[in-house]
Design goal:
By secondary structure, the chain is an alpha+beta fold. Helices cover about 20% and strands about 30% of the residues. It has a single domain, classed as OB fold (Dihydrolipoamide Acetyltransferase, E2P), CATH 2.40.50.140. Helix 3 links the parallel strand 1 and strand 2. The radius of gyration is 19 Å and the shape is globular.
């Protein structure tokens, strides 16, 4: 081994790591294949509350990890019964962006998670889920920002998804940025996305 060999190996390793972190792929949006994946749609869901989701450990991925695959919790399906507070119907990626809270009167930024339903062009299941939601919430009479006049309790079922695109670090502190009103912490970047089914909550 020549004296230059260790330096060369280190340089090549650094290049490989940098290339892998760049996550170059043909995805039209951040982790798009994962956002519209129906592979877990037939999995039996685990019931959770909004507070449970906000207690999950965040992933370390950021906007640079455009092609990050589903791992761990993201391969599980959950159902959450919560109050719909805002529905944004015209997101740039075509998703329906829905902000939910565990309690009807909880201030949204304090305790909120996001669930999202992809466009029907990505699968008939999503068209059905949108119809189910529209049957429970009047999506034709939302406020200018998508707010509901009165919160409606709904049960959503979908795969867990960590939206690392919005994870930022400022002065060494990780935080969520521009993630709707649910940006109270990095843990709020956990979503149910995609949503496979929407239904009326089962009574006590």
């Amino acid at each position: 081994m020549t004296p230059r060999t260790p330096a060369l190996v280190a340089a090549l390793a650094s290049f490989a790591i940098g290339t892998a972190h760049a996550q170059t792929c043909p995805e039209p949006h951040y982790r798009w294949s994962e956002k519209i994946d129906t592979a877990f749609a037939h999995q039996t869901p685990t019931a959770v509350d909004v507070s449970d989701i906000l207690a999950w450990t965040p992933r370390t991925i950021t906007a640079k990890d455009k092609c990050a695959k589903r791992i761990g919790r993201e391969k599980n399906v959950y159902s959450v019964t919560a109050y719909v507070r805002r529905i944004k119907l015209r997101e740039s990626d075509g998703d329906w962006h829905i902000e939910i809270t565990e309690e009807e009167s909880t201030p949204v930024p304090a305790s909120c998670v996001i669930v999202e339903i992809p466009a029907p062009t990505n699968g008939s299941r999503y068209g059905q889920a949108r119809d189910q939601l529209a049957g429970l919430v009047d999506t034709t009479h939302l406020g200018s920002s998508g707010d509901l006049n009165a919160p409606v309790q709904v049960t959503f079922t979908g795969a867990a998804f960590f939206d690392g695109y919005h994870q930022k670090t400022t002065q060494g502190v990780k935080h969520a940025s521009q993630h709707g009103r649910c940006n109270s912490s990095v843990r709020a970047l956990w979503e149910l996305h995609p949503i496979y089914e929407v239904r009326q909550p089962v009574g006590p």
